[in-house]
Design a protein that fits this description.
14 helices; about 40% helix; flat
C-alpha cells in the first residue's frame, strides 16, 4: 500500500528544501522564486524504526527492508488557485491524489528570502491555502449535491446516501469548516464520502519551518500554529529545513553529533513520519527470517487477511491463518523458536486484528 503525503504551502516557505532533505535527494530544484516546482516531485522514504534492526539482529537477517512512506512536493499555491490562478488547477489535481496533506508554514524571518505576500504570518498563510481548498470543494459539491438529491427523489438508494453525506459536507463548507468534520452514518456513506475525494476531507499535518536556533523549542510563530492545530484537532511539528539539508549526506555518527549540538534527539524526518503515521492511523507489522527482515504498513484495525494483502494479493485471497508473535515476546525470548517453545506463537484467523509490532508469518493457499 503506497501511502503518500503531499507537501503543500505558499511559494518560498521551504517545501522543496524540506522535500530534498527528507528524501536525501536533489530531485526538487530549490530556488528563491515562486513556482520553482511545476511538476510534482515524488520520493519514497524508508520509515525509521529501531524495532526492525533488533529483529534483524536476532534472526540473523541478511537484508533489512523498512516500510516506505511517499512524499510528493506539490507546486506552491497562491490566492485564487480555486479559480485557476497561478498553477491552481494543477495544484488541486495533484493534491487529490495524496492521502494526507503536509502543510509547510514559514515560521522564520529572513529578508533575503522573498515572501509571495511580503510578510511573515503562518496563520494567514495557512488560511490562504485552506480557503482555496474549501472554495474548490464548495464549487464541486454545489453541483453534485443537487444532482444526487434529484436521483434520490426517484428512489435511488445510493443517490440518497450520497445526497445525505455530501449534503452534510456542503453545509460545513458553507460555514467555512472543512469537509473532514463530516460524520457518515454507516459504511456505505463512508465509502461514498471517500470516493468524493474532497480536498478538505484529507488529514492535515502542519510543519513549522523555523530558523536553526529555534529547531528544538520553536518560536512565537510556531506557537501560534500549534494553537491553531490544537483548536482544529490537527497535528503540528517543528522542523528546520536548513538543518535537515545539512544532515543530508552525513554519516550516522556525524549526524547524531550534529543533532546533539543543535539540541535535537532525532531528525525532522522522524518527527514528520511519526506524526504522519498518527494522522493516517497506520501501524507497522514485520516479517522476519534469515534472508530478510521487513517492515510493512497497514491501517489500524486491519484484519489479518487485509494485512496479508499488503504483501501480496494472493496471500489475502488464499488466507488460511497468521502465525503471530508480539514484538516484545520475539525480542525478550530471543527469536521465533524460543517464542514458540514458550507458547508465545499464536495461530490467528480471519477476524484477528493486527497489532502494531506484530511479527507475522502468513499461511495461505491459492
Amino acid at each position: 500500500m503506497g501511502f503518500r503525503c503531499g507537501i503543500v504551502g505558499l511559494p518560498n516557505v521551504g517545501k522543496s528544501t524540506l522535500f530534498n532533505a527528507l528524501t536525501e535527494t536533489q530531485a526538487a530544484q530549490a530556488a528563491n522564486y515562486p513556482f520553482c516546482t511545476i511538476e510534482p516531485n515524488v520520493g519514497q522514504v524508508g520509515v525509521p524504526d529501531e524495532r526492525l534492526d533488533k529483529l534483524a539482529s536476532i534472526a540473523g537477517s541478511q537484508k533489512i527492508i523498512p516500510t516506505q512512506l511517499g512524499f510528493v512536493d506539490i507546486a506552491g499555491l497562491v490566492r485564487g488557485a480555486s479559480k485557476g490562478e497561478g498553477l491552481g488547477n494543477q495544484f488541486l489535481a495533484n493534491i487529490r491524489e495524496v492521502d494526507a496533506i503536509v502543510h509547510v508554514l514559514r515560521c522564520f524571518e529572513d529578508d533575503d528570502i522573498q515572501h509571495v505576500e511580503n510578510r511573515v504570518d503562518p496563520i494567514a498563510d495557512a488560511e490562504t491555502v485552506e480557503t482555496e481548498l474549501l472554495l474548490a470543494d464548495l464549487e464541486s459539491l454545489e453541483k453534485r449535491v443537487p444532482a444526487a438529491q434529484k436521483k434520490a427523489s426517484g428512489g435511488d438508494k445510493e443517490a440518497k446516501a450520497m445526497a445525505n453525506v455530501l449534503g452534510q459536507a456542503l453545509d460545513l463548507l458553507r460555514e467555512g469548516k472543512p469537509a473532514r468534520l463530516t460524520q457518515p452514518r454507516d459504511d456505505e456513506e463512508a465509502r461514498l464520502f471517500s470516493q468524493a475525494q474532497l480536498l478538505t476531507a484529507k488529514p492535515v499535518l502542519f510543519v513549522c519551518n523555523v530558523e536553526e536556533e529555534a529547531a528544538a523549542e520553536g518560536n512565537a510563530f510556531s506557537a501560534r500554529v500549534f494553537e491553531k492545530a490544537k483548536a482544529e484537532g490537527a497535528e503540528a511539528v517543528i522542523v528546520s529545513a536548513a538543518i535537515e539539508a545539512e544532515l543530508t549526506g552525513m554519516e550516522p555518527d556525524e549526524r547524531m553529533a550534529y543533532l546533539e549540538e543543535m539540541g535535537l534527539h532525532e531528525t525532522g524526518l522522524a518527527r514528520i513520519i511519526r506524526a504522519g503515521y498518527d494522522l493516517l492511523h497506520l501501524i507497522t507489522f514485520f516479517t522476519v527470517g534469515p534472508k530478510e527482515a521487513r517492515a510493512w504498513t497497514s491501517h489500524k484495525g486491519a484484519k489479518a487477511p487485509e494485512a496479508a494483502g499488503e504483501i501480496h494479493s494472493d496471500m489475502q485471497r488464499g488466507f488460511i491463518r497468521a502465525e503471530t508473535i508480539a514484538y516484545e515476546d520475539f525480542v525478550s525470548l530471543g527469536g521465533e523458536s524460543a517464542a514458540k517453545d514458550a507458547g508465545k506463537l499464536r495461530a490467528e484467523g480471519k477476524e484477528y486484528e493486527v497489532k502494531d509490532g506484530d511479527v507475522l508469518h502468513f499461511r495461505f493457499n491459492v
